[in-house]
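Quick log. Single chain, no ligands specified.
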Amino acid sequence: MKKQFRVWSSILVLTSCSTLLFMASCKKDGASPDNPQTKSEPKVETVTKAGGKSVCYVEVNSNSLLNTGKYTLTTGGQQLFDIAIIFAANINYNTTTGKAVLYNNPNVTNVLVNKNTQIVPLQNKGMKVLLSILGNHQGAGFCNFTSRAAAKAFAQQLADTANYYGLDGIDFDDEYADYGNNGLPQPNDSSFVMLLDELRKLMPTKIISFYYYGPAASRLSWGGKKAGDFVNYSWNAIYGSYAVPNVAGLPKSNLGPAAVNIQSTSQSTANSLATQTKNNGYGIYLWYNLTSTDKHVYFSGVSNILYGSSVTYTP
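-> predicted structure:
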């Protein structure tokens, strides 16, 4: 099944700390995402262990991102999760300006503005932290920009946010846009590729990932360019299943055909998906919906297959 519990407000009224509608993020210490006092240095991705990467989405409306850092391989001590994803910010639509705007709800904002306690500790463990961007029922999405200028303007918001908060990259999840709302157009073939192209120019060394789902999944090439030219990773979006994302240009090591919902996918299914991933030579295993409950036994089933080690939980 797809991601659950996603009831996102379509109201554009932001909190008092989100006075800039362009970014919809809190100011801190007199700086803004558009004009930050300091920006993080680009981070070069490193492989933390053999056997591929484990990627984990966390619903920060109800769970702490820090839970991803509590699991390590019993043998070797490396982190189980290589990439932790903040789920989720939104692409909203400003009816006054007629532009797409990035919106961080209060829970996402809390993680970002408290990056020193919520993000940096994970990065210090060698993990990468991404911000996932999701539609919000307002008609604005990744697939209906009608000009390169409009795509570039939204890409700039994403890059500014990633730089300002020291994130390692941006994840795209083309769900819940409700294309057509607010009189906005339906998806077109050029929009998503243009957006990726512009974002890669602004974030040459950061990660761009694609949750393989929605209209964007069938609009991955245009004008002689393809999504695989710009994204680092793509993974299957249907939990409990095995399906290789059809993203031309990405090698097996950067594709994740296995996806599990930690709260609902059985141990036997999770183990089977891990075996297929390993036997077929793919490099990503996707987890979703990590909570505060100790799941090291469940994770060990998969980890023993992928990494040859059980998992240790450290509260």
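The radius of gyration is 19 Å.
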